[in-house]
């Protein structure tokens, strides 16, 4: 697996995989409204197709309150298959972004 060094390369890879995902777990050190707008349509699409997901984000860095509200609204709309939560400021385990995506296998009969 090659490291994704450039921001655009990482975004392209994440959006490509999120488009195909049936389940996702995303961890961010911080969330901005601008950054969330780039992936929110893909997250909502996955959830509407009965996919499952979770977003964990930090609050000790400058996380945008509007982005937090957007995630909480999404959690309210998709309470059965989506969870958004924050990592306490004193817990340093989430200093980098992490992504875990999976696809459901589709079997043809």
Strand order of the largest sheet: 3-2-1-4
The unreliable regions are: 105-109
Q: What is the CA-based Rg, rounded?
A: 14 Å
Shape: globular
Roughly what fraction of the amino acids lie in strands?
15-25%
Order of helices and strands: HEHEHEE
Structure description:
- With 109 residues, the chain is of the alpha/beta class.
- It has one domain (23-102).
- It is 39% helix and 22% strand.
- It is built from three helices and four strands.
- It has helices at 7-20, 33-48, 65-77; strands at residues 23-28, 52-58, 82-87, 98-102.
- A four-stranded mixed beta sheet has the order 3-2-1-4.
- Strand 2, helix 3 and strand 3 (82-87) form a beta-alpha-beta unit.
Task: Briefly say what this structure is.
This protein has helices at residues 7-20, 33-48, 65-77; strands at residues 23-28, 52-58, 82-87, 98-102. It is α/β, with parallel strands linked by helices and 109 residues long.
